[in-house]
Write a structure and sequence with these properties.
With about 500 residues, the chain is an alpha/beta fold. It has two domains: about 30-395, Alkaline Phosphatase, subunit A; about 415-485, Arylsulfatase, C-terminal domain (2-Layer Sandwich). It has 14 helices and 14 strands. It has helices at about 1-25, 55-65, 80-90, 90-95, 120-125, 200-210, 240-245, 250-255, 275-280, 285-305, 340, 365-375, 460-480, 480-485; strands at about 30-40, 65-70, 130-135, 165-170, 180-185, 190-195, 225-230, 315-320, 345-350, 355-360, 405-410, 420-425, 430-435, 440-445. A hairpin with a 6-residue loop joins β13 and β14. It is globular, with a radius of gyration of 24 Å.
């Protein structure tokens, strides 16, 4: 009799446990997030746009089935400023990451602050398992003085990881073939070195995270995984031969099809990176890397499908900034031309949002509040956020108060009130440059009539010049930008 009672009680407990687990699983309605951003990946290098000669079938599919933001920009087209805007929802002069993080700038507070509430903090505080894989580049190495060797990479201790409970990352380095990482529990002197192309290795890590074979994340809870892919950032030539083969025997002149490409430096522009003659020959390696990055993204997407997580996972594809690749006689980034500051932005969620092309003039500080709004956490957006929640745009474009311009800026932590400021509206790109010695230099382009920005029309229409300067001033005044005080009476 006692044995029967015991068995009955055991069966009741087992059934109760099964029901509790099922209810817990059923309550797990929040979507997963896989936020991918590839460093130095320009907007033109998405195959479906038919601009650069690249093959990106996986990114193309995300765009075709998701929402492609056709006017996305990196407001400050540089690695660390983009990352800080993404994580904080604030512009650089507010979050303090005013340029790339390295030891020479740490003394000026040029790093992500421990006390700041970040995108990942909000997710972690609301039941998400949060993971980060790849390049971080938001910490300040130990300060060095002028003349001392500048250090770029640094370990991020657990108390500065802003809610990320899975960590497979490094500060910053250019080791695409032989990268190293700090794992979740590793100490500063415990790097993991890998002999594998970094995007491929990181895709392996992410696939294992998705499968959760080693309990990298909580069971029965949504996850938010951020994947920062270093390529196609320099060095361009560190890309597997399998991707290079598609460009064998092809010269840069054959693949750089934009009419604004120059094979000599334009020294009249007081911004951007030069050395075009030495670097432009690697254009085919850049495009080969783009193809390789797409292939690794495809592997991750495929595993989301095979594990049954695809439909309820939001996949975002974006980039820190673009790549000039010879346009206007410049290389790389940190300049206002489209090749540098236009970036991909695709948001894909099969279960909830319909495919479309969206021309919202979205800015990077808008990403955090918009994504939080999309996953139902709009009420948890920190009050310090400067970006706007545009999550309604995924479901109904009517009635949304759309921005009419996007800020462009460039400054230094030493002199935040100087440097470059500008904006883009529906028709024009306007930029002013100021330093302590020279008078203002202005650039104005009619983007509708001159889509490759080959003709600076500033000075040709005084009324238009005056209007642009006034609009810029009004925009900067709203942001309490000291640049206004430095540059206007």
């Amino acid at each position: 009799m006692k044995n029967k009672v015991f068995k009955l009680l055991l069966l009741i407990v087992m059934i109760a446990g099964f029901v509790a687990c099922k209810e817990k699983k059923d309550k797990q309605t929040n979507p997963n997030i896989v936020f991918i951003f590839a460093d130095q990946y320009r907007r033109a290098s998405m195959g479906f746009l038919n601009e650069d000669p690249v093959k990106t079938p996986n990114i193309d599919a995300l765009a075709e089935q998701g929402v492609f933001f056709s006017r996305a920009v990196a407001n400050y087209p540089l690695c660390s400023p983009y990352r800080a805007m993404l994580m904080t929802g604030q512009y650089p002069l507010t979050n303090g990451v005013i340029s790339n993080c390295h030891s020479g700038r740490t003394q000026y507070g040029n790093y992500l602050k421990k006390e700041t509430t970040c995108f990942s903090d909000v997710l972690a505080n609301n039941g998400y398992s949060a993971g980060y894989v790849g390049k971080w580049h938001l910490d300040g190495p130990k300060p060095t003085k002028k003349g001392e060797r500048v250090e770029w990479d640094t370990w991020c201790p657990p108390d500065r990881r802003h809610g990320f409970d899975f960590w497979y990352a490094y500060g910053t380095h250019g080791r695409h073939y032989h990268p190293y990482y700090w794992t979740t529990d590793a100490k500063e002197d415990e790097k993991t070195f890998v002999k594998q192309w970094s995007p491929e290795h990181e895709a392996d890590v992410i696939i294992d995270y998705i499968v959760n074979s080693q309990k990298q994340r909580k069971d029965n809870a949504p996850f938010a995984l951020f994947w920062s892919i270093n390529p196609p950032h320099t060095p361009f030539n560190e890309v597997p031969e399998s991707y290079k083969k598609g460009y064998e025997g092809i010269k840069a002149e054959q693949v750089l099809n934009r009419p604004n490409v120059m094979y000599d430096d334009d020294r009249s522009l007081k911004a951007g990176d030069g050395n075009v003659k030495q670097k432009i020959g690697m254009a085919t390696d850049y495009f080969a890397t783009v193809n390789g990055v797409d292939a690794q993204i495809g592997r991750v997407v495929e595993h989301l499908k095979t594990t049954g997580l695809y439909d309820n996972t939001i996949i975002v594809f974006s980039s820190d900034h673009g790549e000039m690749m010879g346009s206007h006689g410049k290389m790389h980034k940190n300049i206002w031309f489209k090749e540098s500051w236009e970036i991909p932005l695709i948001v894909h969620w099969p279960q909830k949002i319909k495919a479309k092309v969206e021309d919202l003039m979205i800015s990077v500080p808008d990403y955090m509040p918009t994504m939080l709004g999309l996953v139902g956490l709009g009420n948890n957006i920190p009050k310090e956020v400067e970006g706007t929640d545009y999550s309604k745009v995924f479901f109904d474009s009517e009635g949304i108060q759309r921005p009419d311009k996007q800020l462009y800026l460039g400054a230094s932590p030493q002199e935040p009130g100087e440097g470059k400021r500008g904006f883009r509206n529906a028709s024009y790109t306007y930029v002013e440059i100021k330093n302590a010695i020279e008078p203002n230099t202005c650039f104005l382009y009619n983007d509708l009539e001159d889509p490759y920005q080959m003709n600076n029309i500033w000075g040709q229409n005084k009324e238009l010049d005056k209007q642009m300067a006034l609009e810029l001033r009004e925009l900067l005044l709203k942001m309490n930008d000291p640049w206004v005080e430095h540059n206007h009476e």
